[in-house]
Every structure is written in C-alpha cells, then in structure tokens.
Manganese transport regulator
Amino acid sequence: MKTSKNEQDYLKAIYSLKNENNGSVSINAIAQKLSVSSPSATEMIKRLAKKELVIHKPYYGVSLTDLGNHEARFILKSHRVWETFLFEKVGYTMEEVHDEAENLEHASSPRLIESLYVLMGYPATDPHGSEIPTESFWLKNEVELTLDEAQVEQTYHVTLIEEEGKNFFKKLEISLPHLIKVIDILEDKSIIIKEDRESSIVIPPFLQDKIHLMHRR
Ligand SMILES: [Zn+2]
C-alpha cells in the first residue's frame, strides 16, 4: 500500500504519542504534535481510518491498527537507519543528520532501508542513541501473496487479515492464524488450511484475497 509523506508523519506522531501515553491518543494531541489545526487532523484521521491504518473511536481517541503500526515502525527504522548512515558513512555531524533524515525517511523503499541496515552491520542504535527496530521490512527471497494464490503442501506466514476475514474467524471463535499450511484445495476452490496442532479450517473463495501471506522461496 502507498502512503503519502503527510500520512506517514501522522502515523509516526500517533506511534510516538501512543508510546508516551500507553494506548490511544486524542486528536488534539496529534494536532499539537504536528502543529496543525484540529479540523485538519480530524480529516486526516478519517482518511487513515478508511485505509485501515488507524481506528478512531469517539471519546476514546485514535489508535493504530496492526497495519498502521507496521507502517509507523518502518518509517522510524528508515529515519534511524538514515541518521546512522549519514553520520557513520557520509561524515555528517550529529546536529546535521536529523533534518536530512526527515526527508529521506519518506523517500526510501523497504528494500533500500534493509540493504543499508545490513551494509552497516545491523546497528543497534542511531547516533542519538535511539533504538533501531530489528524487524525486517523486506527480505530477499520472500514473496507476498494472498491465500487464493497459495499452493497445496506449502507453509505460509500470515502477515495481514483484512476486516472481513477477521470477522469470519471471530464468528467461528477461532483465533487468527499466524503460520499455516495449505492442506487441500477443493473443487469449489475452497482452501483447507491448518495451523500447527489446531484443527483444519475451510476458507471459502470470497475470503481468500483478504488473507495476506508471506512465503520464503
Ligand atoms: Zn532524528
């Protein structure tokens, strides 16, 4: 999914406020953090909610979805990897790295960031001492697909289940699967999946593109 620089700044702001407050954050706090008006913050939050990056509950405030959290952590990693790179490899001073990284963080693909991260030997912190997320946002030889493209006998990591799919599992009172094996594909295109030690589940065709997977070749 493509997010704009502005959207990414909001996700980053919500992520850092959330960590300070331990949970959801108010629109006012977000507006203050980004020096924008409350109405324009409200409008952007609506947009992010539509993209399933945040959840906005009246009186509760704004919180990040798994997808929003993932995106925010990538931007954070991008920023800190760039600061480290500029400081260690390019000769920028500590005072100069932040502004440059603010721009570069939005312009970099996961592939570029993970490549720089590996090139520098997996640095634990940026030059300011802030922790760099160790999780990888791009891996060589990994392919992303949805369940309808999966193959029998293969094992897949479930990376994301869209709302419709989540409701399906909720109705069946089954917890969301993480690592699945495709057992069989039936004549009507239903797919039987199984998670380790759990019983198998039949996923109907209309839900299969709502279940996002990662597969290592
Ligand atoms: Zn910085």
Remarks:
- The mean pLDDT is 91.
- The longest strand covers residues 155-161.
